[in-house]
């Protein structure tokens, strides 16, 4: 049994973010981190590995420096890593990205007892599209927003969160699951893991590795294979600052309440 | 079935809205999307069609007409009673291939965000996630950019085409789908120029619901297409659907939201209690920043921001919230923003209509008293 986990290296958007004058993001100014939801997917895979002895394979599409992130995930307990990287893949939207990742996952091989796991969404785009689209391209059933996963033989029972509650879903392997942070608390790298992470198998899949897959075609990957195009990107204007009230006492509060009442806001 | 060629753009027309229902109750976002879809259909001069799937849900169909749908395509089956990715994707893709809508809108709920990408991948078309603004008409789109962007006028005025596969493509009939990216730091307008339908999931709470019109509801036509769906088409099994025991906060529908942030850390329970009292006086509900949810002080349904909910209440009170961009993305369109924060350089003051620099634990009780008194004096 094998669990293939998809991860992405993303700019940390929670801190200070610099935008270039042309409206694009100044990525150089931001730290690169492993997408938070993906770490929940890694943890879920490692927990299942402890239960079943499954092999955990971590796969990412990105530029060569993403190797560091993949080595860190090996140090957390994954068995091997695959980086999907190539100039031909650049400019891919979610559709083209799923196409490429689905091809890489087929190359790794999805057998009847295997599971593919993803984070719910990545913090740079917040789209939550790549997981379900990989599932469609591989013809696998999907369960998204997983908050609990129980495995019994080839059947998984998954608590799938909704805004107003949850569904309990049963699905058989092979399948794809997208994970949310409520699922678990990701473990840290272990000392042994850090020592071993550069001796574990690490492969790079480039265009030549994948080009014989019917999913990979110049018209289905990269910029040319992306159904969506960016028409324009821009920064929103700052809403103008309003009125700073003087002081912070009873009088200040009464003044504010008076203004709100006079303007019929309250 | 007719042949489906998703690049024959001229073969596609009409605007469709997937109208999500759960347990026979329409999701509010379906009405928002029908109202928004009406505008787009009028800009294109085509019909607006609701797409409703379920079991015994015909009673919900006509009401969609009251918000602007010309017709509703209704697919009913016991196998569609609960949402399943496989069942809904198959039926939706089959009817799309048959009727060929130009635009397909889906609410960006936990279900819409599961369904949309799966359908787009099967149909081989583009999907833009979590949109906050949609336009077809270029003049209306340019006006939107003038008010919502910092782009210079010459750039906005000259915007009428995009380079697509090295060729200049006229975007005047394309759906312009605008969404935040990078935690709200950037906005992008996306088009799907080569394939149809152009698909978008839309953030719940962002589009405004139109007034209900009974005459239009009565006139709404219901279409029941033939479709096939068997248990063999479905690879997941819904064992149960459980509603949250506790009543969830309706942040999106609230007129007043009083939110708390990291500033309550020295007395979490006390801070939440103050926010609840102020919310009660103002007739609103309590929200929270990402920090309060990540710390477990409030449940996830309270979260306002890019990764939480987008709200635009009449009054938004921010207590002890610094105003990170990811929070501002979810509340900056509120009509009146009141901020209380100890730090006078907190970014929240840059967008607040009224700011008080002080300790929320001292200011809030006084504010509650002052508002009570002001209301009593009216």
Can you put this structure into words, describing what you see?
By secondary structure, chain A is an alpha/beta fold. Chain A contains seven helices and 13 strands. Chain A has helices at 36-52, 67-76, 94-108, 130-138, 191-196, 207-210, 250-262; strands spanning 2-7, 9-11, 32-34, 55-61, 80-84, 115-119, 142-152, 155-162, 165-172, 175-179, 202-205, 229-234, 243-245. In chain A, a hairpin with a 2-residue loop joins strand 8 (155-162) and strand 9 (165-172). The longest helix of chain A has 17 residues, at 36-52. Chain B has 378 residues and is α/β, with parallel strands linked by helices. Chain B has two domains: 9-233, Rossmann fold, CATH 3.40.50; 256-377, TPP-binding domain (Rossmann fold). In chain B, 33% of the residues lie in helices and 25% in strands. Chain B contains twelve helices and 20 strands. Chain B has a seven-stranded parallel β-sheet with strand order 7-13-6-1-4-5-14, sandwiched between helices. In chain B, strand 16, helix 8 (268-282) and strand 17 (285-288) form a beta-alpha-beta unit. In chain B, helix 3 crosses helix 4 (112-123) and helix 8 (268-282) runs parallel beside helix 12 (360-376). Chain B is globular. Chain B starts with 14 loop residues before the first strand and ends with a helix. At the A-B interface, helix 3, helix 4, strand 7, strand 8 and strand 9 of A face helix 3, helix 4, strand 7, strand 11 and strand 12 of B. Strand 9 of chain A pairs antiparallel with strand 15 (236-243) of chain B, so a sheet runs across the interface.
| Annotated CATH homologous superfamily of the largest domain in chain B | HUPs
Helix content of chain A: 25-40%
Distance between the termini of chain B: 66 Å
Order of helices and strands of chain A: EEEHEHEHEHEEEEHEHEEH
**For this entry, what is the oligomeric state of its chains?**
heterodimer
Let me know the average pLDDT of chain A: 93
Count of beta strands of chain A: 13
Give the strand order of the largest sheet of chain B, numbering strands 1, 2, ... along the chain.
7-13-6-1-4-5-14
The average pLDDT score of chain B comes to: 94
Helix content of chain B: 25-40%
Q: What is the CATH third-level topology name of the largest domain in chain B?
A: Rossmann fold
Q: Give the largest interface.
A: A-B, 81 and 103 residues
Strand content of chain B: 15-25%
Number of beta-strand segments of chain B? 20
């Amino acid at each position: 049994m094998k669990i293939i986990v998809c991860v992405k290296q993303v700019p940390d958007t929670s801190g200070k973010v610099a935008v270039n004058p042309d409206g694009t993001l100044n990525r150089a100014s931001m730290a690169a981190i492993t997408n938070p939801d993906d770490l929940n997917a890694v943890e879920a895979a490692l927990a299942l590995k402890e239960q079943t002895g499954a092999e955990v394979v971590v796969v990412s599409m990105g530029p060569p420096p993403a190797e560091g992130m993949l080595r860190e995930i090996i140090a957390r307990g994954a068995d091997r890593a695959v980086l999907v990287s190539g100039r031909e893949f650049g400019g891919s939207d979610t559709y083209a990205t799923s196409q490429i990742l689905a091809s890489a996952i087929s190359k790794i091989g999805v057998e009847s007892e295997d599971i593919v796991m993803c984070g719910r969404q990545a913090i740079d785009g917040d789209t939550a599209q790549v997981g379900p689209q990989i599932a469609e391209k591989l013809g696998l059933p999907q369960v998204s927003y997983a908050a609990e996963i129980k495995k019994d033989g080839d059947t998984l029972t998954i608590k799938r969160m909704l805004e107003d509650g949850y569904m309990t879903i049963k699905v058989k392997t092979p399948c794809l699951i997208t994970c949310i942070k409520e699922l678990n608390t990701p473990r840290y790298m272990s000392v042994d893991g850090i020592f071993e992470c550069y001796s574990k198998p690490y492969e790079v899949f480039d265009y030549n590795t994948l080009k014989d897959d019917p999913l990979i075609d110049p018209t289905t990957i990269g910029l040319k294979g992306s159904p969506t195009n960016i028409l324009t990107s821009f920064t929103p204007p700052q809403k103008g600052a309003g009125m700073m009230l003087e002081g912070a006492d009873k009088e200040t509060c009464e003044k504010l309440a008076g203004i709100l009442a006079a303007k019929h806001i309250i | 079935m007719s042949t489906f060629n998703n690049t024959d753009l001229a073969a596609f027309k009409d605007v469709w809205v997937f109208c999500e229902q759960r347990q026979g109750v329409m999701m509010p976002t379906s009405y928002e999307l029908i109202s928004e879809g009406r505008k787009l259909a009028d800009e294109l001069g085509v019909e607006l069609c609701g797409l409703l799937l379920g079991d015994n849900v015909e009673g919900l169909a006509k009401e969609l007409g009251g918000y602007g749908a010309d017709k509703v395509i209704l697919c009913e089956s016991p196998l569609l009673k609960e949402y399943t990715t496989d069942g809904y994707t198959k039926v939706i893709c089959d009817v799309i291939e048959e009727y060929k809508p130009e635009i397909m809108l889906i609410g960006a709920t936990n279900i819409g965000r599961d369904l949309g990408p799966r359908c787009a991948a099967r149909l081989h078309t583009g999907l833009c996630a979590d949109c906050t603004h949609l336009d077809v008409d270029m003049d209306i789109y340019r006006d939107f950019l003038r008010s919502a962007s910092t782009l210079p006028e010459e750039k906005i005025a000259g915007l009428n085409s995009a380079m697509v596969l090295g060729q200049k493509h006229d975007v005047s009939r394309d759906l312009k789908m605008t969404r935040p990216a990078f935690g709200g730091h950037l906005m992008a307008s996306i088009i799907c120029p080569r394939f149809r339908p152009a698909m978008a999931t839309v953030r719940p709470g962002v589009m405004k619901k139109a007034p209900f019109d009974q005459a239009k509801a009565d006139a709404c036509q219901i279409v029941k297409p033939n479709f096939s769906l068997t248990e063999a088409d479905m690879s997941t099994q819904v064992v149960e659907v459980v509603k949250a025991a506790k009543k969830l906060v309706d942040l999106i529908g609230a007129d007043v939201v009083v939110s708390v942030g990291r500033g309550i850390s020295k007395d979490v329970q006390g801070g939440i209690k103050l926010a609840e009292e102020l919310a009660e006086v103002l007739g609103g509900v309590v929200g929270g920043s990402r920090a309060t949810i990540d710390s477990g002080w409030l449940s996830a349904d309270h979260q306002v921001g890019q990764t939480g909910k987008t709200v635009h209440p009449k009054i938004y009170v921010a207590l002890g919230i610094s105003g990170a961009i990811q929070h501002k993305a979810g509340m900056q369109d509120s009509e009146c923003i009141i901020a209380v924060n100890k730090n006078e350089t907190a970014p929240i003051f840059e967008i607040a209509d009224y700011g008080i620099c002080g300790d929320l634990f001292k200011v809030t009780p006084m504010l509650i008293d002052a508002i009570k008194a002001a209301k009593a004096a009216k």
